[in-house]
Amino acid sequence: MLADPSIVAEVVVRNRKSKVTDASGNLLFCGQDTHLVEAPVSSEAKEFDRHLRRYLRNGYVASAEGGVAGRAVGFVMTTYRKLASSSIAAIERALKRRRAKINGYPEGSTSSIGVTEFEELEDALEEGEDGRDDLDEVLDGVTVLGKGANPFFVDEIFLLNELCERARIVSENDLKLKTFLNDIVEALCREGKKLLVFTEYRATQEYLVEALEKRYPNSGICQINGGMNLSEKRRNIDSFNDCARFMVSTEAGGEGINLHYNCHVLVNYDLPWNPRRLVQRAGRLYRYGQRERVIAFNLISQDSFDNRALGMLLDRVSTIARDMAEVSHEFDEGLQTEVVGELLERIDMAHILANNREMEIERSEADIADAIKRAERARTLQDRLFSHIDGYDPRTTPVLHSFGPAEVLAFLEGVLPLRGIRIRKRLYDGRLLEIELPEGMQGKHSEFAGRSVARITVDRRLALQDQRNVSMDFASAFFSELIEFATSPEFRGEFASIHGPADGSLGVYRIRWQNDQGVPRWETLLPAFLPSEGDFAEVNPAFFGSLLLSSNSASTKSELAEKGSKDRNRVLEQLQKCADGELSTKCTALRHPNDVVLLAAADVFKNS
Questions:
Q1: How crowded is residue 130: how many other Cβ atoms within 10 Å of its Cβ?
Q2: How would you class 302 by CB atoms within 10 Å of its CB: exposed for 0-12, middle for 13-18, buried for 19 or more?
Q3: Own/partner pairs for 242-246, CB < 8 Å, 24+ apart?
Q4: Exposure string (b/e) for 82-115, b if CB count within 10 Å is 16 or more?
Q5: Beta strand 592-606 with 496-500: parallel, antiparallel or unpaired?
């Protein structure tokens, strides 16, 4: 199927949401718009950044002594940079805690963390995968591994005092917070919109919640962070999906939760060092069932070296996506955001920033340019990959990808009686079936709520109109069980017998390959046909597609008797050899065989 499979290792192939449709060709996703909102930077914030960079450079020099202690100091400095990228509140709180520790104040004391835990944190930080929203608290334990309560370098306490005072002044006139409240939140609230706000750290989360409560009292503000247990998170999610206006979440809400039911607007208050998280955050709203076009605001402030570098990355990647939209018909408005996401996922921005300890913007600019070139090259390789796919016979490929409600309904009509389930009524032109469950199946499936008579449909609109109407898709346990039954050995326990253009035998196989790490990655459906007078089976017979969409009554028992079990064993051996050959010929150094599974077999009799 791949004429040039060696390039697979360079790319990750995915379906784009903007192109996904239902069986009728209707788009399932309404698209996403992303806006960059730049906050002005005050002179006080610029001065704070200048003094912070001086402090950080001194810390990095102190880390050069090596060993666990030196690495711990370097870890603290890099973490301060990440907190400063988030908000003035987050870095101010961390600096105050560090000052208190040196001075021996109770609020600066905490238990140490072990070397093993530190090394895990260190590796995760370098890869941009730390995922900790309480880093300012974690730092207290890390500093004990460094020099304990002693200063990292000469005059550290002097610089900390100066920084804490400058941070206080910036906090009193935080232009980033004002831009967030006045330019984004206020306009959305006037329109009655719910708002999902993301930040990396709890310190910033607390800062934003306090500001929102002050500006919009009694509006309902929910939170998700890593300090909550599952039940607490669930209560907040339910409240936001119900009546609350705001949800402020750390990265703990970046994956695995659904917030799209009544919200389609999000704000990224800070830009994570791992830009892939921007895609994950948007995924809380940009998912199946979202009825509105998702709107995302990325709030950018040039108030630190790292934020300037992150803003530069987003600007250049967005420019590339716009340019592609202008010169190629392949990219329309709905794809621009996804192209940005694809490029960001291929750029290791955390590594670029963490390695630039001198905080020289020219160096990061060059590294970003190289990373973007590599990301663009990966996209080019992806295009090459698709251009080398030849796949099934053109006459069968469209059919294999066109299963819809009609085909699901035909499957139900055929398999229900074989499962001992009686169809009592056919309603709405047959799109809804009223079925009677046998005694052994009553109460087994939760979607039927213990009823012995149930109503199932292939039409989602009918399912939404009446809660008794159960939609039949792969999310339904009942439908999944029918699929499992139809592919199990107990399903008739014999070859099917069908009519076709020639005498012979047909086998349908699932073939799967795995990568060099043993993870299953590729799968294909393989029909193979062995003519009665032939010794070699052919793959993807031209007539296979038509069989999928046509009714085909079983042949007579006399016809079934013509083929003995010995003959069928020989046929299966020949079909299996064909499938095994197809598996082996598509293997490469990175694509290894996984398994071959016979899904169905049939005797084919030529139409008279």
A1: 22
A2: middle
A3: 244/194, 244/219, 244/220, 245/189, 245/194, 245/195, 245/216, 245/219, 245/220, 245/221, 246/194, 246/195, 246/197, 246/212, 246/216, 246/219, 246/220, 246/221, 246/222
A4: bbbbbbbbbbbbbbbbbbbbbeeeeebebeebee
A5: parallel
* CA-angle at 604, arms to 599 and 606, nearest 5°: 155
Look up residue 376 and give its two tokens.
């663009």
Among candidates 310, 318, 254, which has minimal Cα distance to 286?
Answer: 254
Round to whole Å and give the CA distance between 132 and 79: 11
pLDDT in tens, 108-164: 555 567 777 777 777 666 655 556 777 777 777 777 666 667 888 889 999 999 999
Edge-to-edge order in the sheet of strand 520-531: 496-500, 592-606, 504-514, 520-531, 538-539
The residue assigned the tokens 């669930």 is 234
Report CA 567 to chain centroid distance, whole Å.
49
d(CA 513, CA 585): 11
Alpha-helical regions (H) of 276-304: 276-282
What would the two tokens of residue 485 be? Answer: 């039954």
Contact call for residues 600 and 496 (beta carbons, < 8 A): yes
In whole angstroms, how far apart are CA 31 and each of 195, 266, 324, 325, 346? Answer: 18, 14, 18, 15, 22
Nearest to 4 by CA among 387, 499, 578, 434: 387
pTM across the whole model: 0.58
Q: How far apart are CA 252 and CA 534, in angstroms?
A: 61
pLDDT in tens, 389-417: 444 444 444 444 445 677 778 788 878 88
